[in-house]
Each structure stands twice: as C-alpha cells, then as structure tokens.
Amino acid sequence: MNDVPRPRRRRPNPAQRRRRARRIALQALYQWQMGGGNVGDILRQFESEQDPERTDLAYFRELLQQITARVGELDGHIEPLLSRPLNEVDPVELAALRIASYELAHRLDVPYRVVINEAVDLAKTFGAEQGYRFVNGIVDRLARRLRQVELQGGAGDHGHG
Q1: What CATH number is given to the structural domain containing 93?
Q2: What's the structural domain count of the chain?
Q3: Residues 68-79: pLDDT tens digits?
Q4: What's 157's DSSP letter?
Q5: Whole-angstrom distance, CA of residue 81 vs CA of residue 143
Q6: Is residue 8 part of a domain?
C-alpha cells in the first residue's frame, strides 16, 4: 500500500526562507573567516546543499557577497562598540554581527527589530552559551547609530497610517 497519500510539506513563508538564508550565510561567513578561501567557491558549495523552496538563495547570495566585499565598512560600524579587539570576538558572534551590520546599513526594508531578533537567534543557535547577550547589546547599539530615524519614528509615530 504505497499509494497512501502523505501530507504535503508546507512551503515556508518568505520570513522563514530568509531566516534560513541568514543561518546558512552565518555558516558560510564562519568558513570564510576561519579559512579564507574563495567566496565564489564557498557560495557554490553552500548553494548546492540547499533546497531552493526552503531557503531564499538570492538573499543568502547577497549576504555572503556583500558582507565579504564590505567587511571593512561593516567592521568599522562594529569596532567602536566593542570592549575588546575585533580579532578577539568569537567567530560565530562576529559573523552574526556582520550580518546585522550589513542589514542595518544596507537593507532598510528589514525592520531594525527583525535584525536584532535574527542576530540574537543566530548567536543562540550557533554561538557560545551566553554569546547572544553580547550580540544583543552590540546590535542594539548598532541599530541606535544606523537606524536613528526608524527608532525615533517608531516611538512617536503610532497610529499614523
């Protein structure tokens, strides 16, 4: 009786697909940070392992390519907020911070609260036990610097279309 219908797996919504893209981007960035390597090779490796219905591959591609291309700029946003040298930040936490810095600076379509929540989630999932607290504090301060208008507008703009 192999003809028994199986429930269809529901296609993830766009937010879930983007969340998976961030998770994979974190892993790819970690690999790039630890071993250098060619970004194109890392991109192809990770893309080939993904289900395009479950992962926003275009967003993954954007994150990996843009973050590695703009790493100096992104680190420039992060470094002033650190209490230790950048090279002493845990590599998983650093990858999460770079993703958040990129999204806050260059993806204004992603609300700052989503950026913070996603960065904390990445650190909880892949980082050290309390690393998410560090990431939360830094990304919160990054949001205040990079999204001042959004934060001010959100506080005093309730109920206006």
Answers
A1: 1.10.940.10
A2: 1
A3: 999 999 999 999
A4: -
A5: 11
A6: no
